[in-house]
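retry 2 of 3: previous attempt timed out while embedding iron/sulfur cluster. Reduced batch size to 1 and resubmitted. Inputs unchanged:
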Amino acid sequence: MNEIRRTTCVMCRNGCQLGVVFDGYQYRMEYLIDVAPNNGRTCPRGNSASIVLDHPKRLSYPLLNGKETTWDHAFDLIKKWHQDVKPEEIAVVYSRGAGAAEVGLVRGFAAALRTENLVCGYLEPDNAFRFRLSGVKSATLDDVSASRATLLVGDVFNTSPVAAKRIIEARYADKQSRMVVIDSIKTREAGFAHIFIQPKPGTEFLVLAAIAGLIDAKLKMDIDGIANRTGVPRQQMEEVAKVLKPGVPGLIACAATTGRISEPYWHSICAQILAFKAEKPFVGFGEALVPDGKMGFGKLKEAVGAGRIKLLFWFGGLHPYSYPELFPEINKVEFRVATSIFKPENPLPGLILPVPSEFEKTGKGESVWGEVKFEPLADPVSGTRSLAEIVRQFGTVQEIPGDLFQTVKLEEVTAQLTETVNRQLNASKSESGNLFWLLGRKEAIGVGGFFEPEEEILLHPDDAQKLAVTEGDFVKVKSKTAERQFRVKVVSIVAEGTASVGVNVHQNRTLFSVEVDPGSGEVKIPPTKVEIWRVSA
Ligand code: SF4
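retry 2 succeeded.
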């Protein structure tokens, strides 16, 4: 019998336990039925663990401008590039894929290079769940099962299959149980909801603020103004406030998808303010949490765009420069070094260094349900080098840990919240035009066939009629930043005037712009306005 190697799935923060066996020919998954939280179930992403280990696109040698090179040459080149630049012209970025200890090493590496340009490169909106409102209890799995008043914000079922099963069980365990869903797309979970609220794109956090304001009038929320801005009737928000009233065991669970959230910081904080006022535990689901750097990503983007950065290191991440929406800026950097576990789809300028995947490393981390340990499922792919080996080529590097969570106090955020709501209510006056809102959708697809195309666009039946298209026809979608072609799928899960595309595929993300999140100063990738028109196939 071959040995089962066990670990915590690294693909998101649900902390699922899984196993892999090497049968002498290939890796195959083992489903650990007796271990929580997933008890043998994995989503398609987690199910890809064994595929990642010997994926045909795994990178096992350094690439220079898309061509194979040696480690010695790569290190010599980096040393030469380093000599040609000043410390302030260097930027060091880290993203998911680097464990907590590795992020500490990257911080130490930036200190050794004497650069202040140390930046978190994980730009997904779920990173805003790092902000914790003091006094809010983090939900446990038992809280999920015991909930009789559950509020789901965003696509929680897709983001947490583990919680989804328990939420559905809790919903049917008691006739008095109530479930509310707030999302600008009517995903599967809305089908289980007693109350479904479909606000205008990107306005979920305003609805949350209004419901919190209905529970506690001291918050002084402009409920009617918010109703007008979000398109959600006051009466519907009052019903939800009644469902969530303190005293009923419940849960506030929140997900955040790229291209769907307009202000990630306030999305996270408003859900937590509501949790606090409703006296419910809170959980924010997502793929990763990565601590912030010394500089916000918005500032790096600006510095790169202005030509002030000449040498860029990008550590972690599944793909080099995972954000094609940043290519126009990144292409201005003269010397580029990135780590990757996969070969890039297209040759990228600069050096790409192969590193072990997260499934081949040891470490500790945080799942939404608490601390977890990672054990290697296999030895690192030959030819790869660990991040520690790479950074220590350039001298002594000390690990400098950073704080993952940032606590904020209710009294500090209340005044800012009023300002934010006012800003949003005023912004609504300037909305006009025949454009569509484009929303992002991130389904838990497997990563085995990396970069599976997401060629469909969801259109509401009335919009399909206006555009004179039917299912299977093709349309062009044009935003301020890109233009792409999609095949039409006609569904009423998107509201009239909105359309949705998958954002797992990097090219689709180029349609969305990278902007600064006013709440945190980090960046955001919000819903975007687009033109859509019919084209021939
Ligand atoms: S839900 Fe998350 S942790 Fe669980 S198997 Fe899927 S990707 Fe892995």
